Amino acid sequence: MAEKVQSILERMVPPLKDLRDRGLFTPTEIHAIVERRRRSEYLLQRRSAARLADYLRYIEDEILLEKLRKLRKEKVLLERRPWNEKRGRKRGHNHDDDDDDDD
């Protein structure tokens, strides 16, 4: 059982390294992800039948992780944009200062 779990976890290494390299997760967070996945895989691979709750918990963990990944990706993309694009403005003339109307 341990060899099967280890094999599954080893296949997860490249995507996790990519998340780390892109700055979406810290090495400590990656370690926590691996430990959570290891625990879940052992529950699913145990000799007694895996329970539906084990599958559902694992799926829920992965859904939450994906939501967090998407949020962090958006944040990283926003931080890389130039200042004027972040604020939704273009540099240049401010039209609010125009006094073309004769009061």
Structural write-up:
The chain has 5 helices and no strands. Helices cover 69% and strands 0% of the residues. The longest helix is centred in the middle third of the chain and has 29 residues. With 103 residues, it is mostly helical.
Which structural traits does this protein have?
103 residues; mainly alpha; 0% strand; 5 helices
This entry's quaternary arrangement is: single chain
Order of helices and strands: HHHHH
Helix content: 55-70%
Largest sheet: none
Structural class: mainly alpha
State the separation between the terminal residues, measured CA to CA. Answer: 84 Å
Question: Mind telling me the C-alpha Rg?
Answer: 23 Å
Tell me the fraction of residues in β-strands, as a range.
under 5%
Low-confidence stretches: none
Summed over residues and divided by their number, the pLDDT gives a mean of 84
Secondary structure: number of strands: 0
> What coarse outline follows from CA principal-axis ratios?
elongated
Total of DSSP H or I helical runs spanning 4+ residues: 5
How do you describe this structure in short?
This protein has helices at residues 2-11, 13-21, 27-45, 52-80, 83-86. The chain is an all-alpha fold and 103 residues long.
Topology, pairings included?
Blueprint: H1 2-11, H2 13-21, H3 27-45, H4 52-80, H5 83-86
